[in-house]
Amino acid sequence: MQPIKKERTIVDREDLPVTLGDMHTLLRAFKRELLIEIKTLVLDQPRPTPMKWLKNKDVMVLLGIKRASLQALRDKGILPFSRIGRQFYYDPQDIETEMERRKTIGRHQPVLKPLKRSNRPH
């Protein structure tokens, strides 16, 4: 007959014996709950807002223009901007408004090519 192993016990606040196995189980459950709570907090954070201001380079890429053309738009008062030191900043909404204002429908209708007939018998 084998001797029965007695688990060590830890006394909790209510003076009830708790085994180390029970503590491991409780700690694993606590860890799961804590991770779920942390994930919930992280995922509920508001997303960062998009950048409010665009720099010269950003606007040139968006509009597909060169630096001189961008300067001309500023000089003519077509494109509003803010300037801090030597850097120019543009509101993305102003860029979008200018693009919408300049949107045109081309004069030419797209050329439609005739459908190629297959060589398969009908």
From TrEMBL:
Domain called Helix-turn-helix: residue spans: 53-102
The organism's place on the tree of life at top rank: Bacteria
Ranges for region Disordered: 100-122
PANTHER family documented for this protein: HELIX-TURN-HELIX DOMAIN-CONTAINING PROTEIN (PTHR34585:SF22), PTHR34585
Name listed for the protein in its UniProt record: Helix-turn-helix domain-containing protein
